[in-house]
């Protein structure tokens, strides 16, 4: 009986890894901007929310019928929307012969259809209150809008993918979906006391100033992906506007120019931040937070992105765009690329994890540091409130038992003299 309702859930389990991979980077960027970190309980709840939305949507469209000449004839009932409120009560009563006994209802398909429609958006009400902090009226409006989207998706035949509707638009579904979401919102109150507190502002205050290796890696990955996308688009437009051979001939030159703009000129113009660093609220500065200056910033960018530049040069040599002699000079270029990669991708992350100042070797050599910047909400706060927050952050940094960045310091054993006279 319940098999048609389990098929969409199974489909959601298959599709969820793909959807999660697509939203992983945007969700991580938003996490750093909103909460100061990408992981934690909030991220786990967010991914369960994505899975729930996927499963709920698939519940309204799957199983899909086979397109055939007789489809519209077989689905003729779906062409007429059901607009009479509470008609499901009549349907259940007729199916049970007028009996409403609990045991009798369990064997009735119309009863299960109504019950599952009621339960479908109940989790949405929970998420809207606990995770998104929505009040009752906004949550009700969002639930009704979600249900209306589901019903119109069904009535239009998956937005005119099919030549006719294959499921009926039912006003009772709107009513039951919305009532279920309201119940979920009400249940979220007592349930919130049993779950970890979802406090983005508190997480932002605690984790926002930290410049961790995953945060650095996300910024670097965003920069690399953004530069490659810009390069692909630029060379593609050049090939279309001129000719294919012209685009191929100038592809590496266009990539080099874009790299100079992306990794050097934009940070000079934006106060020390590449586009990827701006996305996760980081910038290059001096260790005290002041501007790094053009010379320091240039030196730091060269050391940080040397593997990328040398690898690009090797690609240019391999394709014949950059003339380069064979033999020892080419081996030296390979050796330089390997050494730069070891410095940037192996030595630097290890140094950041081990050293107390959390700075990479290239940053120490150039007198720079990667520092966190406030998000938009923090910049809008009055100066007095921002100063109070900074003082609180400094107190947390200076709190005994914590390393810079809020990492708990391993407790050291006290000398015997320090323990004398203390109750056991």
Summary, kept brief:
By secondary structure, the chain is an all-alpha fold.
Characterization of the model:
The protein is an all-alpha fold and 424 residues long. The chain contains 22 helices and 2 strands. It has helices spanning 3-34, 41-61, 71-74, 87-95, 102-105, 109-120, 122-130, 136-155, 157-160, 171-192, 200-207, 213-241, 244-249, 251-269, 275-279, 294-304, 306-318, 328-354, 361-366, 376-380, 383-398, 416-419, and strands at 282-285, 369-372. Strands 1-2 form a two-stranded antiparallel ribbon. α6 crosses α10, α7 (122-130) packs antiparallel against α8 and α17 (306-318) runs antiparallel to α18 (328-354). Residues 396-424 have low confidence and may be disordered.
Please give a handful of descriptors for the protein shown:
2% strand; single chain; elongated; 67% helix; 22 helices; mainly alpha
What's the structural blueprint in terms of helices and strands?
Elements lengths: L2 H32 L6 H21 L9 H4 L12 H9 L6 H4 L3 H12 L1 H9 L5 H20 L1 H4 L10 H22 L7 H8 L5 H29 L2 H6 L1 H19 L5 H5 L2 E4 L8 H11 L1 H13 L9 H27 L6 H6 L2 E4 L3 H5 L2 H16 L17 H4 L5
Antiparallel strand pairs: 1-2
Helix pairs in contact: 1-2, 4-6, 6-10, 7-8, 7-10, 8-10, 12-14, 14-16, 17-18
Which structural category do the helix and sheet elements fall into? mainly alpha
What's the alpha carbon Rg, rounded to whole Å?
30 Å
First-residue to last-residue Cα separation: 66 Å
- Global mean pLDDT: 83
User: In percent, how much strand structure appears in the residues?
Assistant: under 5%
Number of DSSP helical runs: 22
User: What is the ordering of alpha helices and beta strands?
Assistant: HHHHHHHHHHHHHHHEHHHHEHHH
Helical proportion, percent range? 55-70%
Biggest sheet strand line-up: 1-2
Shape: elongated
- Biggest β-sheet: count, sense, barrel? 2 strands, antiparallel
Q: Which segments are poorly predicted (pLDDT under 50) over 5 or more consecutive residues?
A: 396-424
Total count of strands? 2
């Amino acid at each position: 009986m319940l098999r048609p309702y389990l098929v969409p859930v199974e489909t959601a389990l298959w599709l969820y890894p793909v959807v999660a991979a697509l939203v992983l980077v945007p969700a991580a960027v938003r996490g750093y901007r909103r909460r100061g970190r990408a992981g934690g309980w909030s991220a786990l709840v967010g991914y369960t929310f994505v899975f729930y939305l996927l499963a709920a949507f698939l519940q309204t469209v799957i199983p899909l019928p086979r397109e055939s000449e007789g489809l519209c004839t077989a689905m003729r009932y779906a062409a007429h929307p059901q607009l009479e409120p509470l008609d499901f009560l009549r349907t259940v009563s007729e199916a049970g012969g007028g009996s409403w006994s609990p045991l009798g209802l369990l064997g009735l398909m119309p009863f299960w259809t109504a019950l599952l429609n009621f339960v479908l958006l109940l989790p949405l009400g929970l998420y809207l209150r606990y995770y998104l902090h929505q009040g009752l009226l906004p949550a009700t409006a969002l639930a009704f809008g979600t249900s209306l989207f589901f019903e119109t998706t069904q009535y239009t035949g998956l937005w005119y993918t099919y030549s006719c509707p294959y499921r009926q638009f039912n006003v009772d579904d709107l009513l039951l979906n919305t009532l279920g979401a309201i119940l979920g919102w009400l249940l979220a109150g007592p349930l919130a006391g049993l779950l970890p507190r979802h406090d983005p502002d508190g997480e932002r205050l605690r984790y926002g100033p930290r410049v961790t290796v995953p945060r650095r890696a996300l910024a670097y990955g965003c920069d690399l992906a953004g530069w490659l996308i810009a390069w692909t688009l630029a060379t593609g437009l050049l090939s279309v506007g001129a000719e294919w051979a012209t685009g191929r001939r100038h592809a590496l030159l266009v990539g080099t120019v874009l790299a100079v703009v992306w990794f050097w000129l934009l940070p000079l113009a934006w106060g020390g931040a590449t586009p990827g660093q701006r996305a996760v609220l980081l910038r290059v500065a001096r260790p005290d937070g002041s501007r790094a200056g053009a010379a320091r910033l240039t030196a730091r960018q060269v050391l940080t992105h040397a593997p990328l530049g040398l690898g690009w040069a090797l690609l240019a040599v391999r394709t014949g765009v950059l003339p380069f002699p064979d033999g020892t000079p080419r081996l030296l270029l390979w050796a330089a690329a390997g050494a730069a990669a070891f410095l940037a991708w192996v030595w630097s992350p290890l140094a950041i994890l081990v050293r107390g100042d959390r700075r990479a070797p290239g940053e120490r050599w150039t007198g720079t540091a990667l520092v966190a910047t406030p998000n938009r909400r923090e910049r809008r706060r009055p100066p007095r409130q921002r100063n109070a927050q900074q003082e609180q952050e400094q107190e947390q940094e200076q709190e005994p038992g914590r390393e810079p960045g809020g990492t708990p310091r391993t407790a050291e054993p006290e000398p015997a003299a320090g323990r004398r006279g203390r109750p056991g």
